[in-house]
Amino acid sequence: MALSSHTPEVMGWLARNGWTTGRDIGSLADTLIEIRVQDAIRQGWHLDTLKTATRFIHSYGKLELPYPRSSPEVALKFDPTAGYDGDAEAFAEISEGLGKKVFPVGYETYEFGIWLVDEIGRFFYLHHTGGYFLGENEYDAFALALSGKSRPDVEDFFV
Known about the structure:
The chain is of the alpha+beta class. The protein is about 35% helix and about 20% strand.
């Protein structure tokens, strides 16, 4: 699926909601990541910190991006600490299938699906109906989120 990454629509959406080039939430990002790692341990799973996730959370952490075509309470929130009991096992299953580690970076407020990034920078969505592919990078994932188009199954990317 080829999407144009840095479209004016995507870049405008990010800018209107507080993101700028070079944005960095500093040590708060590291705290959020550690909270998530500890939650996985509490659930009985090991969750590796990934460079791709760390970079993303430093840049986008704590942003809330309302969907322009939805009601104001429907948004993407970039906080890796959000989740539910048992999600770490689901992350492990997706990682195993992909042959790549994943780390949660945020969630959608409407159905509470979790956004994940893998160690090579691809984005996935864990929903109660299954896992889905969002894009090769964050801009592709943002473009897909804005488009409202269907998402390919994560299994299509399993090795």
